């Protein structure tokens, strides 16, 4: 495709030399051990992600191989190429190169090569199984840092890109953590450009859009045919924020008969927030209070958690008209919550 071949990747220091920004199928196959299942680190709607070691320098990468037999996979590949071609932000996954070729059987092969994120996905950290010994529980301040990282990434896409970009599939498995636990938002396979005529019209019906996104995180209006919008990303962020501090997936079995994670959180505001947050956070607060011999920190921390749950609830209102916060407002409120938290009790 001429669109794919025209993708120009931003120059980035510390990456591969500019003259070696293209890799063949054979090189990617070798880097991933012939796309070995032992190197598979993730899978999505349109393909699989493998850990790989590229070139003589031994650069660690993540190789996303599209399953082109899946309907929409090629469209997803083009959307991701287009979205990533000109954007650069510390909290977005960096793309190193793309590969549009044929495999060893002569079949079309499409892959995207990203920087490798050593600490995996937020999904793994929030909902790890007992056999994941290398994954620990996230502290309150770590969760807050990560939430702010994600908010900064989406705020950049919405308010600092021309035209603005809608991510369209924000969820914990699409948030990756680097060596320093800095969050990077990835997977732009459902990304959409927002042109001027759409900015203020969040409910324009479109018979072609369908429900795209992930159940539990996708904005309700998308199910009624609405176009992708900033308000849709705000909704997904709100659900993600609630999940991070309650540590329940929006699809958890406890959310049934009309009770959603949004309703659950809203009913707890403000007095009962400490009853619904992740018990591990309460344990952390008690442990630190007793260790430091201070019993007065709980009030300030409770205030911080109330602020965070309130932001999550405001972002995930059912109607887009009621979602009055934009991502720049969300960033400001989260940063204020972090400042207040650190001034009361420094857990860093």
UniProtKB/TrEMBL annotation:
GO cellular component, one term: plasma membrane
Localization terms from the record: Cell membrane
Keywords: ATP-binding, Cell membrane, Glycoprotein, Kinase, Leucine-rich repeat, Membrane, Nucleotide-binding, Phosphoprotein, Receptor, Repeat, Serine/threonine-protein kinase, Signal, Transferase, Transmembrane, Transmembrane helix
Family matches, as Pfam families: PK_Tyr_Ser-Thr
Residues annotated for ATP binding in this entry: 64
Location, primary (coarse class): membrane
Record has Hydrolase as a keyword: no
InterPro entries: Kinase-like_dom_sf (IPR011009), LRR_receptor-like_kinase (IPR051564), Prot_kinase_dom (IPR000719), Protein_kinase_ATP_BS (IPR017441), Ser-Thr/Tyr_kinase_cat_dom (IPR001245), Ser/Thr_kinase_AS (IPR008271)
Enzyme Commission designation: 2.7.11.1
Catalytic activity: L-threonyl-[protein] + ATP = O-phospho-L-threonyl-[protein] + ADP + H(+); L-seryl-[protein] + ATP = O-phospho-L-seryl-[protein] + ADP + H(+)
Molecular function via GO: ATP binding; protein serine/threonine kinase activity
Keyword Transcription listed: no
Domain Protein kinase: 35-305
Entry's family note: Belongs to the protein kinase superfamily.
Name listed for the protein in its UniProt record: non-specific serine/threonine protein kinase
Species in which this protein is naturally found: Citrus unshiu (Satsuma mandarin)
Lineage, highest ranks first: Eukaryota, Viridiplantae, Streptophyta, Embryophyta, Tracheophyta
């Amino acid at each position: 495709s001429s669109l794919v071949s025209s993708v120009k990747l931003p120059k980035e220091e510390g990456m591969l030399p500019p003259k070696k920004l293209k890799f063949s199928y054979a090189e990617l196959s070798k880097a991933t051990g012939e796309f070995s299942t032992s190197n598979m680190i993730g899978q999505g709607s349109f393909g699989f992600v493998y850990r790989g070691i590229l070139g003589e320098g031994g650069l660690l990468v993540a190789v996303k191989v599209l399953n082109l037999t899946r309907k929409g996979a090629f469209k997803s590949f083009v959307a991701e190429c287009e979205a990533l071609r000109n954007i650069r932000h510390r909290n977005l996954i960096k793309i190193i190169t793309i590969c549009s070729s044929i495999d060893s059987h002569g079949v079309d092969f499409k892959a995207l090569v990203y920087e490798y994120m050593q600490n995996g996905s937020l999904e793994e950290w929030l909902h790890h199984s007992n056999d994941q010994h290398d994954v620990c529980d996230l502290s309150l301040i770590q969760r807050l840092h990560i939430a702010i990282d994600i908010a900064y990434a989406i705020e950049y896409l919405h308010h600092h890109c021309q035209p603005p970009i809608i991510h369209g599939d924000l969820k914990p498995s699409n948030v990756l953590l680097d060596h320093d636990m800095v969050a990077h938002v990835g997977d732009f396979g459902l990304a959409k450009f927002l042109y001027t005529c759409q900015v203020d019209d969040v409910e324009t019906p479109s018979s072609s859009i369908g429900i795209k996104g992930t159940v539990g995180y996708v904005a309700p209006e998308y199910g009624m045919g609405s176009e992708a919008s900033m308000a849709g990303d705000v909704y997904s962020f709100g659900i993600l924020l609630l999940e991070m501090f309650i540590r329940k997936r929006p699809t958890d079995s406890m959310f049934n008969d009309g009770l959603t994670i949004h309703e659950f959180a809203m009913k707890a505001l403000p007095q009962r927030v400490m009853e619904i947050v992740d018990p591990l956070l309460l344990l952390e607060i008690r442990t630190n209070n007793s260790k430091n011999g201070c019993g007065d920190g709980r009030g300030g921390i409770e205030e911080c958690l109330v602020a965070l749950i309130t932001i999550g609830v405001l972002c995930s209102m059912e109607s887009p008209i009621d979602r009055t916060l934009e991502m720049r407002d969300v960033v400001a409120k989260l940063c204020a919550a972090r400042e207040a938290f650190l001034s009361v009790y420094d857990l860093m």
